[in-house]
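Colleagues,

For the teaching module next term, I've prepared a clean inverse folding example: a structure given as tokens, and then the sequence designed for it. I'd like students to try predicting residues themselves before seeing the answer, so please don't circulate the second half yet.
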């Protein structure tokens, strides 16, 4: 059994794509329905079950296969128009807001948002598209969101992103001095993450 797994890994590594499209019924996620036709220059991924070409995400970028995978896993979907349809833009150089971070973390943690009941602490999230994601993050006690004081449409810092993703993956970390990176000292919020 282990030899078969190693052979399959070797075959994937020898292939041209890091995350090849898979035919439905082959044991993969149901979000991948059939083989999709790839754009020769830009990343093609499934959004809401349909192939979308992301014209601002060249296949040659080092991060392209990873972005494709998180899109295919329905963790992110790129920008949408006023009707909610994919625009084919990912914005790889764009910052992420705290509300976008909350959604990504909730999706990564595979939290069923229907189970996130109760009272929302964060007034800046009331009535926004992100309200349920902020509520879920608050309920899980994720440090950035726990006290309800984060302004959800503000840009997230690198430290907030790292701390939230570590918590969403339930990664334990020890207290640190903040001396691993030259631009982070112990006074930076979430430096230990």
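(Answer key — instructors only)
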């Amino acid at each position: 059994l282990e030899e078969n797994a190693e052979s399959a890994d070797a075959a994937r590594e020898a292939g041209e794509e890091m995350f090849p499209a898979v035919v439905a019924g082959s044991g993969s996620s149901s979000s991948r329905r059939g083989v999709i036709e790839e754009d020769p220059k830009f990343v093609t991924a499934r959004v809401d079950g349909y192939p979308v070409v992301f014209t601002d995400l060249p296949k040659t970028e080092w991060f392209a296969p990873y972005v494709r995978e998180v899109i295919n896993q329905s963790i992110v979907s790129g920008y949408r128009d006023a009707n909610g349809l994919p625009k084919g833009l990912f914005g790889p150089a764009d910052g992420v807001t705290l509300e976008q971070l909350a959604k990504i973390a909730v999706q990564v943690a595979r939290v069923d948002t229907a189970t996130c009941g109760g009272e929302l602490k964060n007034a800046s999230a009331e009535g926004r598209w992100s309200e349920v994601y902020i509520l879920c993050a608050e309920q899980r006690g994720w440090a950035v969101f726990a006290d309800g004081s984060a302004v959800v449409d503000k840009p997230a810092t690198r430290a907030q992103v790292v701390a939230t993703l570590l918590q969403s993956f339930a990664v334990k970390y020890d207290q640190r001095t903040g001396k691993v990176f030259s631009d982070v000292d112990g006074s930076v919020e979430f430096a230990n993450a």
